[in-house]
Specification:
The chain is of the alpha+beta class. The protein contains 3 helices and 6 strands. Helix 2 packs across helix 3.
């Protein structure tokens, strides 16, 4: 179902070996992970969109924490090695219209999340 929705939005999804679905959106690799067959759940992922340089781990954590508090639908996280920042949008849907609307909204958010991340991060470095 997610593949047909993504195609209806004009994208050409590619299915990976593990069942993940990838598209190119605004020159970004965006991944879709779907729930089990009976679960109407989707996670839209924008992995490792920003590096975390040595000594900036706390800054990255504070930035992600602020964004998680202030933004709806998006989740910010840092990988276990504290080297990269990723974002995801997760949602449940009820029907095709709901799925399509949530996919569009998620892509809009993930399309600008890097710019927002950098702006929020600069709030803490400009003090």
């Amino acid at each position: 179902m997610i593949i047909s929705v993504v195609e209806s939005l004009g994208y050409k999804p590619q299915v990976g070996d593990e069942g993940d679905i990838r598209i190119r959106y605004q020159m970004k690799n965006i991944f879709f992970m779907v729930g089990q067959e009976d679960e109407q759940y989707v996670a839209v992922l924008f992995p490792w969109f920003s590096d975390v340089h040595e000594g900036e781990e706390a800054l990255a954590l504070v930035t992600c924490n602020k964004m998680n508090r202030e933004m709806r639908l998006v989740k910010m996280c840092i990988d276990q090695e504290m080297k990269g920042v990723s974002a995801s949008c997760e949602f449940c849907y009820t029907d095709m219209d709901s799925l399509k609307s949530n996919v569009e909204h998620s892509l809009d958010i993930l399309g600008i999340v890097r710019s927002i991340y950098l702006a929020v991060r600069s709030e803490f470095t400009d003090c």
